[in-house]
Write a structure and sequence with these properties.
Largest sheet: 5 strands, mixed
Distance between the termini: 31 Å
Strand content: 25-35%
Order of helices and strands: EEHHEEEHEHEH
Number of strands: 7
Radius of gyration: 17 Å
Length: about 190
């Protein structure tokens, strides 16, 4: 995989000061020491073509801050994509802190609304990605997010040491192989 081009926030041409690199599916964005969800969203959308390429084949951008009205309350999906190959909508909810259990119910609400009002007959049910600063693996397992079409992705606010990156990559490869063999056994 080719190295991602950093997006700099507040760059003075000599390199941004007080910036952090953020990794999203090995994509890196630079943000100031303090940032909000909207800053993360802005950084992604400034370089949307590269971000889509990093997400994978078939992704198209649908909406930013997609408004959902439910019982006269407004809710907003941070980023909404469509994957042509998977034939499904993909909602991304951006979070500044670590994963929290209540994010599941929020994403379930979004996904059910999308299934009811946006999903076409020939499409698969929508998927959700909660993009946050840190995962809490036991909570994710206990909540059985994989069964509800919700995935948690972690972004990095600093570039970790090479050894840690290699260990995470190896762990991701092993997890993918495990899921693949479980799928084959189920068939």
């Amino acid at each position: 995989m080719k190295a991602a081009r950093p997006v700099r926030r507040g760059d003075d041409g000599k390199g941004a000061k007080n910036c952090h690199l953020v990794s999203v599916l090995p994509y890196f964005l630079a943000l100031n020491d303090r940032y909000l969800e909207i800053d993360l969203e802005d950084a992604i959308l400034r370089d949307i073509e590269q971000f889509l390429l990093e997400l994978g084949a078939g992704f198209t951008f649908v909406a930013r801050q997609k408004r959902l009205q439910i019982d006269n309350d407004d809710f907003y999906i941070d980023l909404l994509f469509y994957n042509r190959k998977l034939k499904r909508l993909v909602a991304i909810d951006l979070k500044i802190g670590n994963f929290r259990a209540e994010y599941k119910s929020q994403m379930e609400l979004y996904l059910r609304w999308l299934a009811k009002y946006e999903q076409e007959e020939d499409e698969q049910p929508p998927l959700g990605i909660v993009l946050c600063a840190g995962k809490k693996q036991e909570q994710i397992e206990l909540l059985e997010l994989d069964k509800s079409g919700i995935h948690v992705a972690e972004y990095l606010t600093i570039l970790p040491p090479k050894e840690l990156l290699q260990a995470r990559l190896q762990a991701a490869i092993l997890a993918a192989r495990r899921r693949f063999s479980e799928t084959e056994e189920a068939e």
